[in-house]
Amino acid sequence: MPCGDSALLVELPDLTAVVAYYRGLTGAGAAASLAVPRGIIDVVPAARTVLVTFDPGTIRPSEVREWLEAAEPLDDVLSSGREVTIEVSYDGPDLAETAQFLRMSEAEMVKLHTESEWTGAFSGFAPGFVYLVTTHERLGVPRRNTPRTGVPAGSVGLAGEFSGVYPRSSPGGWQLIGTTMAVLWDASKPEPALIRPGDRVRFVEA
Amino acid sequence: MGIVVVNPGPLTLVEDLGRNGWASLGLSPSGALDRQALRLANLLVGNPVGAAGLEILLGGLRLRFVTASTVAVAGAEGIVTLNGAGIPLNQPIRVAPGAVLDFGAPLFGLRYYLAVQGGIDAPQLLGSRSTDMLSGEGPAPLKSGEHVGIGRVSAGNGWVSGTGSGARVGILNDVYALPAIRRAPDPGRAIAARVDRGPRADWFDDDSWRRLVSQEWILSPDSNRIGARLMGRPLTQTRLEELPSEGMVLGALQVPPSGLPTVFLADHPVTGGYPVIAVVRRPDLDLFGQARPGQRIRFLG
Predict the structure, then answer these.
(1) Could you give the domains of chain A?
(2) Is B251 within 8 Å of A50 when comparing Cβ atoms?
(3) What is the complex's ipTM, to 2 decimals?
(4) A51 to B247: CB separation less than 8 angstroms, yes or no
(5) What is d(CA B229, CA B293) in angstroms, rounded to the nearest whole number?
(6) Low-confidence ranges of chain B (pLDDT < 70)
(7) A44, A129, A188: best mutation site toward chain B, by most B Cβ within 10 Å?
(8) What domains, with CATH codes, occur in chain B?
(9) Min CA distance, A67 vs chain B (Å)?
(10) In terms of Cα–Cα distance, which of B208, B8, B270, B123 is closest to A46?
(11) Cα(B33)–Cα(B288) distance, rounded to whole angstroms?
(12) Per-residue model confidence as pLDDT tens digits over A160-196
């Protein structure tokens, strides 16, 4: 779908298809990255879409379309994956309540969170914040009824089908199950984001 | 060394042509709202077009130069004085050590752009020195008493043609041999911006498109670097289901349930959950950096 004169929006059936297609387009997670044509500016995955912006002075919309049509989705099994490991202390204020909601013990919930393989799906609400998804929905929980006005940086949370880590202190409605010392966003680094869409993420208990 | 900020005015920011290509990390493109004005100011002092300058909202800025320099002011039009005497806009001006530069309230437009030979020096994030007001990344707004550094003078001869010094993907879309001086918009007249249909134009009734391009919209005072909010007869969404968040482009006209569109500007969120009915053409977006609250806006579709 055209989105002005310098962007195209690709619609996909679901988030799993978005992640696989995004990996296919950008080579994120693949051993040998596919060539992103010159003139492509941004490839932005979201819940059901991938937005591609380009410089119409460098590349024609028809060439962008060809690239989008040629891309093969890369699923989890095929991709070798850049893996990010995050050490978590499972000491979040909502740990007990969330485990109770999920009808499991705290230990079982922590085991499930650390044994699941998570994938960075898309960014949102703050630089470095990435919505992480996994292959099951056994950790699916609703957001808090009243969002907290301040969630500390490094808080590890659950909401809906997602898990995520707050890169900075901000208001937030996620169920907080732990904290990490990992720095999710460091503006002084050439690659400021610890987790990028397409990355695989493993949580380990600190 | 450099420049001392005597008074920052309501909001003075360091901006260059922004950081493109990082939306997948959640980072807005940012950069000068009136890109052509910054480009022109830079060329006038011999900088690469993408050098960092100051974006001065509504004037009020007073600077004292510690070192001698050459500067140029473009964008908004108003009274700018050097040691109390008015200076011409859109021209290079020599500034002696100790000189004081004052920006009066603009009479036309909203944002002045000041280029200093050598560029404004500030820490870079992903190849850009731009302040992003949405995420708070980039240099903080200027404060009283702050020292602003000046970069090293580049070897360029000023009227460079071809591409500038944009990091990573280049200047994109923005290659001009020599930009014409464009007068800041008259606050008493409507500005006109070309639009293309957006990805969710079909979420609105036929009448809405006609309403979008036939009425004069009014710029709301709630507008900022994130978006230009418009007031007028609301648009009617016909598909009422919730739109899963999707990537947003610069210039998107996003329509919330109120039916009143917001034009996404440089510091816009990279994703959003309201349908986009139309997208403003890139060259016409500069106008939204100079439109004043209450200004009339027409969309040409």
Answers:
(1) 7-70 (3.30.1360.40), 83-205 (2.40.100.10)
(2) no
(3) 0.84
(4) yes
(5) 9
(6) 153-180
(7) A44
(8) 3-177 (no CATH), 191-300 (2.40.100.10)
(9) 18
(10) B270
(11) 7
(12) 889 999 998 888 889 999 999 999 999 888 888 999 8
